[in-house]
Structure formats: C-alpha cells, structure tokens
Amino acid sequence: MSRNPTIHDRVVVVGAGVAGLATALRLAPLPVTLLSAAPLGEETATDTATAWAQGGIAAAIGADDDPALHAADTLSAGAGLSDPEVARRVAEAGPGLVEWLCGLGLAFDRGPDGTLALGLEAAHGRRRIVKAGGDATGAAVLRTLARAVSACPSVTVTVGRASALMQDGAGRVTGLVARTERGPVALPARASVLATGGLGGLYRSTTNPAGATGSGLVLAARAGAVLRDVEFVQFHPTAIALATDGSLPLATEALRGEGAVLVDAAGGRVMAGISGAELAPRDVVARAIALRTGRGEAVFLDARRLDVARRFPTVAAFCRAAGLDPAVTPIPVRPAAHYHMGGIRVDGRGRSSLPGLWACGEVAATGLHGANRLASNSLLEAMAFAAQIAADIRDTESRAAGPGHLREETSGPEALPEVRAVMEAQVGLVREAAGLGPAVVRLAALARAGSAAATAGLLVAAAALGREESRGAHWRADHPGQRAPRSTEITLSRAFAVAKTLGDALPSSFEAIR
Fold first, then answer.
1. Which of 312, 337, 362 corresponds to the end of one domain?
2. pLDDT in 10s for each residue of the chain, 514 residues
C-alpha cells in the first residue's frame, strides 16, 4: 500500500455526484482530493444517482412563494421527524443555490418572458420546481459541476473506491484507504467527507444505479459511526414497469404535477377518493399502486394529453426503448426503491459522530427529510449542506493527519442477488416482523462473511424491525398505527446484537468485521 505524504493536510471527498462535486468546489482554495468511481464526465454509466435525477431543484422563488412555505411543506411530508431548523435553513438557501448554478453556467428552463419556469410536484403547495432540459435536471447539474471541478486548481480527482476509513487511537478519522488501478492507496486527510449516495441498489426493483448499495453507510458503520432513521427507504410510485429486475427507468413525478393520472386497465382512477389524489405524498401513492399490483392488476400512468416527447424527453426516450408511445398508450408503472431518507447521523454542520468525518447528500441523515422526502428536495439539500460542510471544515483548526490505523480490509462475496431478493421480499414497501426477523438473521450471516451490501441491508432491516409503527415511507402491516414521533439511532454492533436475539450468533470478534 502506498502513501502520498504531500496530501496529509488535504480534505478527501468521496463521491462525484452533486454532493461530492459541490463540496469540493465550496472547499476551494483548500486542497481537495476527490475520489470518484469513474473519470469526471463518465459517471452516468456508473453509480451516481445525480445523473439519473429527472426531478428538479425545489426553490421558493415564485411571486406567490416563500421559503417558510417551502419549509412547511417539507415538515408536512416528513411525518413528524423532520427538523424544523434544518428545513428552514435549507429552504432559505434554495434561491441562492439556483443563482449559484446559473453563475456556473447551468441553463435552467425558462418561460417565454425569460423568467425561470416553475413546475409542480407532489405535496408542494406552490409551483417551485426549477428544471433544466425538461426532465434531465440531474444530468445537467452534474455536467455543470463537473466542468467547474475540472477547472478548479485546488481539486485533484482520483479514480477509485473507498474501502476503509483510517482512524487514530482515539477514534478520529484520519483519512481513508482507496482501491485504485495501482492497488490500495492510503489517503491521509485532515477531514474526510462521504458523499457516496444511497442504497436503492439493494433492491431488485429500483430507480437507482445498480452500484448504489450503501457503500458510504457501511464505511461509516464499520468505523463505529452512529446512524439515524435508516429504516426509511422511499419507494417511487411510478417506475416504468418493464419485465425485468434491477434498475428501472423512472416516469418523473412532474408528469403527475402537469396532469397525468393513474389508471387501471379499464381506465378507472387508481387514486380516486384518496386525499391529494395523484399529488399525495409518495408513500401514499406507492402503497395505493402496490395494493393493485399485489392483486395481479396492472396500473398505468396516463399522460396522453401531455406533450411528453417535447416536455419530458428523458421519459419519452425510455418509453421508445421499451416499445411504448406515451402519446398513444398509458405507461405501465409500479413502485421501486428510490431514495434513502436515513443515513449517517450528522449535525447542522454535517459532522458525523466520528471526529474528522463529515457526510453530505443521500448518505447523510441531516434531519431534513424525516420519514418521507419531499420531491426535489434532494439536490437542494446536498448543495446546501455542501456549503455548510465546507465552511465548517475551513473554520476547524487545521491539523495534519497522522498515519492513523489501517485496518486490514475485510472482503467477501457480495451475494447481491440474494441480498436483493431478501430486501425486496422482506424489507420492502410493506413490512412486518414475520419477514423482518428472518431478513435480519440471513443478512447478518452474509455480512459476517464480508458482504458490504448485506451489511447495509442488515442495518435497514434491524432498524425497521425496531420501529413498531407505520410512519411515512416505513409501513408495518403488523403495526399500522403511529406512536409519538421519534428518530431512531443504530450502530453496526447494535444491528448484530439484534441478530443475536433472533437466534443468530455474533462474530467471535467484532473487530474482525469492522
């Protein structure tokens, strides 16, 4: 394993989606090593969900809107678990972040008068969704930030994947170990930022890239970090229902915002009689569709009256590839794993429970999303916290990273097909103890064998078993009521303890899997 002594005082940022790129830019002129799974510009083919984001950026910039209204909608969607102060700060940051992206050269969609075009999505009380390229906002944001990072002299891009965090004797994170083409490389750092995305790829049906299997969550958990609300996995209601498992194309929520409706095979309205109808919170719409599909019925998104080819070119391209014409035929849809509201517990500055480690974007649990993410708040949150994290790191006394302790990397068979089957069947949209218990036991066994994906799944399943209520995206068939709102916290050692109480055995040495 090689060391580069010239970067001991650098900041290492892991991940080249919107969270990682924005953090690297905001840290300038501090020297940053950005660890990317692929060369910048090639991420759409790998595992960053930013490029797949069809939604937009929620920002209260309309004449009839205000950040306080945006924050209120965020709190309502969060089902009692969103932090009001975090919601206020993020909502207030929205207009400025749109201006920042404009300054970087991002061409947002505009109306005939030149003003920003504002879309409507579910659970928003105002039209406040700013888009670029219709339904290609994520890709446009990614290209813009990647260009800016490529031109930023303080950022060095290294292609590779983080495999372990380094820690000193007191538990402080002092950098990380990365797998690169040159082999394992130690990257000492005064501060480390995980911006590794979510875990939708743990499910057989997902709108995420297949590589989104919770890698950053596992890195932090194996180092002893506290995680929060990891049971909350949002299932998007309208993945395009292709005859395949794995990554499914998405029929963006903006279609429903512009008038598309959900129908059954006979043309009957699926959301009839349900408060909010097509614009109800995502968990409500997803369960309504799942109720039908679970009975063997087909559900369709009827967008025939919209000019999908012009206004939603990404969806139109997906439909063409599947042999569908949305101008003639309703789009078959079904729920699929989409976004992780839980993650590494961080404070208002993005700091984790481990000194020296910050987290940004979907891998972090900031308190914004609570039990159910409000549509188009994810890109906004990542950019808002990127600025906050960069400011916090700059304000933190510089301390050159020592060598730290390099734990021998534990690896084993990922067993992804089995992990995905377990997560889909037993830790999915509707859950109950009868399925969660066996899932915890089996995932713990796979995690002990070295599977990082199973470790991420174990954390979700153990937390879901412990939350004996139905709230937001977490629905327990055996506990349909609600308790007093509370966030849950879990560590990897606690997850293995849950497995032990269910008849599984802890590993002989916890350090062996950390």
1. 337
2. 444 434 557 999 999 999 999 999 999 999 999 999 999 876 544 445 555 555 699 999 999 999 999 999 999 999 999 999 999 999 999 999 999 999 999 999 999 999 999 998 888 999 999 999 877 788 899 999 999 999 999 999 999 999 999 999 999 999 999 999 989 999 999 999 999 999 999 999 999 988 899 999 999 999 999 999 999 999 999 999 987 666 898 898 889 988 999 999 999 999 999 999 998 888 899 999 999 999 999 999 999 999 999 999 889 999 999 999 999 999 999 999 999 999 999 999 999 999 999 999 999 999 999 999 998 999 999 999 999 999 999 998 766 555 555 554 455 556 899 999 999 999 999 999 999 999 999 999 999 999 999 999 999 999 999 999 999 999 999 999 999 999 999 999 999 999 999 974 444 433 333 3
- Report d(CA 224, CA 172) in Å as an integer: 11
Q: Report yes or no: 418 and 245 within 8 Å, Cβ to Cβ.
A: no
Evaluate whether 186 touches 1 at the Cβ level (below 8 Å): yes
138 and 41 co-located in one domain: yes
The residue from 222, 282, 351, 431 that is catalytic is 282
Kindly state whether residue 446 falls inside one of the protein's structural domains. Answer: yes
Confirm whether 213 is domain-assigned.
no
Cα–Cα distance for residue pair 340/53, rounded to 1 Å? 14
Q: Quick check: 235 and 205 in contact, CB under 8 A?
A: no
Query: Both tokens of residue 271?
Result: 């959301």
- Which of 310, 287, 307, 311 shows the shortest CA–CA distance to 299? 287
CATH of the domain at 29: 3.50.50.60
If asked whether residues 169 and 260 sit together in one domain, one would say: no
Q: Say which residues have a Cβ less than 8 Å from residue 333's Cβ, sequence separation at least 6.
A: 237, 238, 239, 240, 241, 251, 262, 289, 299, 300, 301
Report the C-alpha gap between 485 and 511 in whole angstroms: 34
Structure tokens at 136: 């290609």
Domain count, the chain: 3
Q: Is 376 left (phi over 0), alpha (psi -120 to 50) or beta?
A: left
Q: Is the pTM of this model over 0.85?
A: yes
CA 463 to chain centre: 17
Has 282 been annotated as catalytic?
Answer: yes
Domain membership flag for residue 475: yes
